[in-house]
Amino acid sequence: MVDEALQRVPNINGDKYIDEVNQIRDSLAIMGDNSTAFSLPQPHLQRTKLCDLEDQELEPLYVQRRDELKQLVASMIKPKIVQGRTLNGKEFVSFLGQILEALNKGEIPSTGSLVEVFNKGILERCLKVYTERMEVVGLPVSVDKLHLVHGLAEDEARKLFAKQHFGKHYAAQSFLNLDEEIKKVFRSYGLANEYQSSKLCEARFSECEDKMDHLQSLKLPSMAKFNAGFLRCNQSFETECVGPAKGSYEQRMSKMLARSRALFIREYNNKLFNWLVIFSLTMVVIGRFVVKLLLLEVAAWVMFIFLETYTRLFWSSESLYYNPVWHAIVSSWEAIVYSPVLDLDRWAIPIVVMLSFLAVYWRCIGARGRIGRSLLPLYNGSFRSSSGRPRTD
After folding, report:
1. What is the pLDDT of residues 150-162, one digit of tens each?
2. Which InterPro entries does the entry link to (predicted)?
3. Which of 35, 119, 153, 371 is 20 to 30 A removed from 295 (C-alpha atoms)?
4. Rounded to 5 degrees, what are φ and ψ at 165?
């Protein structure tokens, strides 16, 4: 029976698993050459009373074979020598008891424990392969992508374990241990992904919030500039905020943007109205005292009177915002204040300083020229008129 079990199985298709089993058969066949098979018949029909029966009550053929077995064992065994001393029967029984006790406590490696140690090394290598594949992913990533990479890495680790594991019963237990370890590593990656995602989304949210606060405090209010900043902020958040925390931060982001837009629109018309009033008074001063241009002064006065009179007639400045003329003024204001080429809010102060310097310079140089032109002809005329007359005291 042993010889038949250890016969090589034909492998016509070249199956690698059949080759591995045949190698195991060859290894066992080498040990099988030194084995001795010895069969014993059934001692008695009442097997529960075997311990209480005498040799005369047992099957004679069994007693004969048992004695032959004793002689065979006695011819094969050698005295047990421990620390240079040969043990007798009682000492050997005591020594065997100690060995069994040590085996039961796990102090001496058994076949099962050796297989577990072997598979444990394979398990560590498979777990290392899984970890290396997961480390390639740069956190944070979306949940779907993390699960996709986890599935690929897990399949690779399982295939490696299935190829290298040893033993059937102990391999099943080691396979379960591998699944548990992979789940632990994946949970740690999931927590790290949530943390990195929250950290990144919080940074993008704070940047957008600061941007919205900055747009609320524009020196020259511009709806076009606010909308441009609003769009850029929203696009950067959608692109850069990834991972499991994106859903919750999207809700916060939408609420913050809606609140900022409502606040800006509420303050926009009031700021623009105040700026137009200041602008009209400034143009009045410039038209009268700086450039002395009557048309500019009249236009500025008309604008100022319109703004002040219209709000008095309709009791509030809010009614002005529904007037078509106001919408035309707003469109002109937006075209002047903000464009992709020039942001007047950023360059307003340098431009005002430069224009003021030019106006003062022009005023001073122009006044000096007029003074020179008015005095010099008077002096020359008086000199020519008095040249033909005798000088008197």
Report:
1. 999 999 999 988 8
2. Guanylate-bd/ATL_C, Guanylate-bd_C_sf, P-loop_NTPase
3. 371
4. -70, 165
Token code pair at residue 86: 């040969």
Question: Could you read off the pLDDT of 241-276 as tens digits, one per residue?
Answer: 999 999 999 999 999 999 998 888 878 877 777 878
Task: Report the DSSP beta bridge partners of residue 85.
Answer: 82
If you ran DSSP here, which 8-state letter would residue 81 be given? Answer: E
Distance CA(178)–CA(162), nearest Å, equals 11
End-to-end CA distance of the chain: 164
For the chain, the C-alpha Rg in angstroms (whole number) is 51
Q: Which residue reads 């680790």 in tokens?
A: 157
Please, is 14 exposed, middle or buried when counting C-beta atoms within 10 Å of its C-beta (0-12, 13-18, 19+)? Answer: exposed
CA dist list (Å): 249 to 198, 203, 270: 8, 11, 32
328-341 as b/e: b if 16+ CB within 10 A = ebbeebbeebbeee
Enter the DSSP assignment of 82. Answer: E
Helix (H) or strand (E) holding 86: strand 85-86
| Interatomic CA distance for residues 60 and 68, integer angstroms | 13
pLDDT in tens, 308-327: 776 666 545 555 566 676 67
Q: Phi then psi for 320, rounded to 5 degrees?
A: -65, -30
